[in-house]
Amino acid sequence: MEEYEITFWRNKLEKVKKQLEINNFEVYIADNAEEAKSIFFEKIFAVEKPLSVGWGDSMTLHKTLILEELRNNKEINFIDTFDKSLDWKDQIKKRKEALTSDLFLTGSNAVTEKGQLVNLDMVGNRVAAITFGPRKVALFIGRNKIVPNLDEAVSRIKNLAAPLNAARHPNMVTPCKKTSACMDCTSPQRLCNTWVITEKSFPKGRIKIILINEDLGL
What we know:
Elements: H1 3-22, E1 26-30, H2 33-48, E2 52-55, H3 59-64, H4 66-71, E3 77-79, H5 88-98, E4 103-107, E5 110-112, E6 117-121, H6 125-131, E7 136-142, E8 146-147, H7 150-167, H8 176-179, E9 194-198, E10 207-212
């Protein structure tokens, strides 16, 4: 990436950071996924000292390689909500357990320039944790998730993030996989079930955000 591009996005991220901080979020900026990992362990994990950590599906989070390190940390209870050795019923139990964790990690489908988070879930465990339950929440957000307003956030999620998420799951059957756009379907595997808009963090600083100066996730 050219230096002028880095500067352009850094300025945009600084503006979004300021708005998020006005809305009581704790915010950091990382130049890349590797730096986001360092910030997380130095500024969040080391400070909060969680005894239990849960997570919600996020391609951005996977890119940071944080999960691998936490999974091997024997000093914490790492609640693996997507343990492939478990059947669906036991995975759901794990996701419920994660709602009581000290720290919950995930991403966000969109963040507005006014400092609002917008998320859409199929099962609901991810948005539930962002809203209530875990003592602290850490979100990893690539610059491509920034949108001007709530209308653009909804459009981005329904016509880009959701169809792409459906496409990346080979066994999922939804109309948007064929049309590459939201069809407001009635599919049993519909992804678009629960919307959550987070205007402010309550209590102040409960939700911690690392904005990343890279295009990451969907």
